[in-house]
Design brief:
The chain has about 280 residues and is an alpha/beta fold. The protein has three domains: about 40 residues, no CATH class; about 110 residues, Ribosomal protein L1/L10, domain II (Rossmann fold, 3-Layer(aba) Sandwich), CATH 3.40.50; about 60 residues, FAD/NAD(P)-binding domain (3-Layer(bba) Sandwich), CATH 3.50.50. A hairpin with a 2-residue loop joins strand 6 and strand 7. Helix 3 packs parallel to helix 7. The strands form four sheets. It has a three-stranded parallel β-sheet with strand order 3-2-4, with helices on both faces. Strands 1-9 form a two-stranded antiparallel sheet.
Length: about 280
Amino acid sequence: MFRGKKYKESAKLIDRAVQYEPVEALGLVVKGASAKFDETVELHIKLGVDSRHADQQVRGAVVLPNGTGKTRKVLVFAKDAKVAEAQEAGADYVGGMELVEKITKENWFDFDVVVASPDMMGIVGRLGKVLGPKGLMPSPKAGTVTPNVGAAVKEIKADEEGNITSVVTVRLEGKQIDGRFQMVPLEGSEEERQCGLLLIAAGFTGCQSYVAEAFGLARDNRGSIVTTGYRTENPRIFAAGDCRRGQSLVVWAITEGRACAKEVDQALMGYTNLV
């Protein structure tokens, strides 16, 4: 295989017979970088786990020391007293249905973070298809669905230039509440950590409460939407995948999606040719 001169020079720095310590290895990566653009680095780690099993899937968050320098614009969905609270905290845009219409009709996405109070999720849920793929959909796990919108905005807005400088974390503990196992904040465990860039990898344990509440659907003690087959209590609404069966694998998502489509077709047409 043909290799360029710069590649060959960089390759000479690496002795494949040597197992380098992390600091030394990273130093060689930087030393071998010769391109005039920001190069990327792939890191492969052998963990000895089987990711097909839910209890062996690896998730976590990594805090990097330097930010991107980008000014972050915060949009808040709130009403009544929460509007003034969000504005005082420094939110760039605050509103309700008018912002939903602006996003859907004008394809407007001049914001980087979306925060919502729980009582607004009924209308924010309509934006799931457009905000979800962009990673902008508010979520309780990410701290962007909260009754304390002012505090959320302050923690996200960071310094005067819009760069993240710190993040407030809290430890969680599992408790049985009203017959359901829930993760709740551990009192007194809040910590402020210096942060330039925050990456969040959040797991999934069941359907978000505001999704079921927005459509008036019942949930079981695991938080999953209750169905008969794939039909919910509302005969015009069907559910499939993780929201119905809980955390599962992508193969189950494919299987359930096909089976649900067949049941929807049967309900609409009175028969189905789907297999």
